[in-house]
Amino acid sequence: MELSYVHAVAMDADPRCPDGGVVTDNVSYGRRLTDLAGELGDSTAIVLAAEDGSELAWSWNHLEARSNQLARLFGKRGVDGDRDVVVIALGNTLEHVAATFGAWKQGAAVLPLRRNLPAWERDRLLELVRPTLVVADWPDVADSVSSGDLAATTGLDPAPPAVDRVPHLSRMVASSGSTGTPKIIIGPSAGVFRASEEPSGRAGTEASRVAMCASPLYHTNGQTSCMPPLLHGGQVVLMERFDAARAATLIERHRVTYTVLVPTMLQRIARLDDIQTRDFSSLEEVIYGGASLPEWAARTWLELIPPERLTFMYGGSERLGLVMCNGKEWLDHPGTVGRPTDCEVAILGPDHERLPVGEVGEIWMRLLDTDEEPFEYIGVPTPEPIMGGFRTFGDLGRLDAEGYLYIADRRQDMIVTGGVNVFPAEVEMALSAHPEVADVVVVGLPDPEWGHRVHAIVQPTDAARPLDEGDLRAHCKELLAGPKVPKTFEFLAALPRTDAGKVNRSRLAEERRAGA
User: Fold this and answer.
1) Phi, then psi, of 153 in degrees rounded to 5
2) Would you give the distance in Å from CA 248 to the centre of its chain?
3) Residue 341 CB burial class (10 angstroms; 0-12, 13-18, ≥19)
4) Distance, CA of 336 to CA of 330 (rounded, Å)
5) pLDDT, mean over the chain
C-alpha cells in the first residue's frame, strides 16, 4: 500500500495568512500548539496524576518547548515527514504527549503502542508498519529512542522547527480485537486543527474544560480524551494508570468537566463505598463506549450526574459510523447505545437479509457522507463493503421500533449450548450486578452433553472472602433463562485485562481447553 502523509510549508507563509499573522484555524497540529503556548503561556496545560499519588504539571510553554526539542531529536534520527511513521510506546507520561506533538511537528504519522506488548505481537506490528523511528524502552529493538534519550534533549533549541509540516495522516491505531490477530487501522485523519470540530457532542468551548484521560494513550479512548482537548486549549489531567478511587478524587480536585470511560471503569467507580457522597457536579460530559454497560452501573451514574450529561456511544476506530444517545434517552430505552448520527444501521441475517425489528443479527453500518474516505487495514485484508457501502465490526445486536440500537455481543463470542444461543455479555452483566463480583468474563468450553457449556471466570471484590457458587448460580437464575446460567465457575484474584479494560475471551477459552 502506498501512503502519502505530509506536505510542508514555511512557518511564515501559510496560504491562509499571507501577512504572517497567527492562524487559529486550519493549521497544523504543531502550529496550533505553538499558537496556544503564545496565548496561554505559563498556565497549566497538562497534569500527570502519577501512580504513586503525586502530581506533576506542565505549562503550555513547557509542553511547547519539550515538543520542539523532541522534534529536533526526531529530525536528527531521520524523521522529516516523507511518509514517516513514529511508533511511541511510553505509557501515560508527559513525555509521551510531548513526543506525539514532536512527531507531528516533523510531519509524521504517530502509532501509539502498548509498552508491554508480547514480543511476538510487537515485532509483527513493527514489521507491518516499518516505522522510521521507535520511541520506547525496548532494548532489543534496534535504533530505538529510549526514555533516557528523551530526557537528554533538554539542552536542545526549544524554538519551533523552521518548517511547519502538516501530517496528512496524523495517527494510526493498532488493534488485536478479541481474536488476537494484530492489525493496523488507517483512517482519514490529517493533522490539521479545525476550531469548528468539537471533539465531543456537547456545546461549549474546550478552553473552558478540564478533561481527564483515564485510558492508556495507545487506545482510541485515551487519545480522544487527551489530544483534542489540548488542541482546543483545554487542560488535561492524565492518569498514569487508572484507579477508581483516584479517578473520583481527581474529578473533585480538578473540577473535571469531560472524560471518556470504558465500562469496567464506570463499574469500578460505581462500586466505590463512598460513591454517593462524591461531588461530580463539575462533569459536563461523560462518554462511555467500548462494550455493553450493565444496567445497574448505568443507573448509578445517572444518579451521580444529570442524565443529559452521560453519553452512550457505539462506534470504532474504523469510523464506520456513530451511534449515540444521552442518559435521558437511555432511561426511555434501557440498554440502548443510541441511534445513528451519521450513518444508516441495518441488522442483517447470515445471508445478508434484513431482519425485522427486535430480532438479533449482525450490525452493519453505512456512512451517509459518501465523500468520507474509507479506512484501511494493514496486516489483515480490508473487508469490502456490501449493499452499496455497508460495513460491520462483527457485532450482533437489534433495533427497536424507534431505531435505537442494542448490542448483544460479538458473533465470534456467542456460545451455542444445547442448541440455544447465549451471548456472554448478557451473562456478564447479570453476574456483575452481584455485589461481591468485581469483574467477570464468560466463555464457552466444550461439554460432552451440551456441546458447549457457559463458563464464568469471576474476580471477587474481596479476594480473602471466597464466593459461593450456589449463591452465584441462584443470583443468575433470577436474571437469566436456564440455558444462560453458568454451569461452571472459576475464581481469579484479578482478570487479565489490559490498561484499556480489554480482555481476550478467545485466548482465555483456548487456555482452558488446553488445560482440560
Assistant:
1) -95, 5
2) 20
3) middle
4) 6
5) 88
Q: How far apart are CA 217 and CA 240, in angstroms?
A: 10
Q: Smallest Cα–Cα separation from 346: which of 307, 287, 398, 273?
A: 398
- Quick: pLDDT tens for 166-183: 988 888 988 765 445 778
Does residue 333 surpass a pLDDT of 50?
yes
Residues sharing a CB contact under 8 Å with residue 84, sequence separation 6 or more, in sequence order: 5, 6, 78, 106, 107, 108, 109, 131, 132, 133
* Residue 15 pLDDT greater than 80, yes or no: no
From residue 287, alpha-carbon distances to 13, 100, 298, 437 in Å are 39, 24, 12, 24
Contact 399, 346 (CB under 8 A): no
pLDDT digits (tens, 9 = 90+) for 149-170: 999 999 999 999 999 999 888 8
Residue 444 burial class via C-beta count within 10 angstroms: exposed 0-12, middle 13-18, buried 19 and up: buried
CB 507 within 8 A of CB 450: no
Decide if 315 contacts 288 (C-beta within 8 A): no
What distance in Å separates the CA atoms of residue 176 and residue 218, rounded to the nearest whole number?
12
C-alpha angle 357/360/366, rounded to 5°? Answer: 75
Spatial separation of the C-alpha atoms in residues 133 and 110, rounded to whole Å:
10
The residues, any chain, with a CB within 8 Å of residue 507's CB and separated by 6 or more, are 180
| Other Cβ atoms within 10 Å of 474 Cβ, number | 11
Residue 17 has pLDDT above 50, yes or no: no
Q: What percent of the chain has pLDDT over 70?
A: 91
Res 4 pLDDT > 50: no
The amino acid sitting at 239 is M
Give the helix/strand (H/E) hosting 328: helix 327-332
Non-local (6+) Cβ contacts of 137 within 8 A are: 89, 90, 115, 146, 147
Q: What is the DSSP letter of 384?
A: P
* Contact partners, residue 140, CB within 8 Å, separation at least 6: 119
Whole-angstrom distance, CA of residue 210 vs CA of residue 232? 11
Cα separation of 239 and 52, whole Å? 11
**What is the per-residue DSSP string for 1-42?**
-----EEEEETT--TT-TT-PPP-SSEEHHHHHHHHHHHHTT
C-alpha distances out from residue 502 to 216, 250, 264, 290, Å: 11, 23, 9, 9
Per-residue DSSP letters for 234-288?
-EEEEESS--HHHHHHHHHHHT--EEEE-HHHHHHHHT-TTGGG---TT-SEEEE
CA distance 66 to 64: 6
355-386 pLDDT per residue, tens: 999 999 999 999 998 776 677 888 888 888 89
Is the pLDDT reported for residue 414 higher than 60? Answer: yes
| Average pLDDT of the residues in 379-404 | 91
Dihedral of CA 116/121/123/125: which sign? negative
pLDDT higher than 50, residue 482: yes
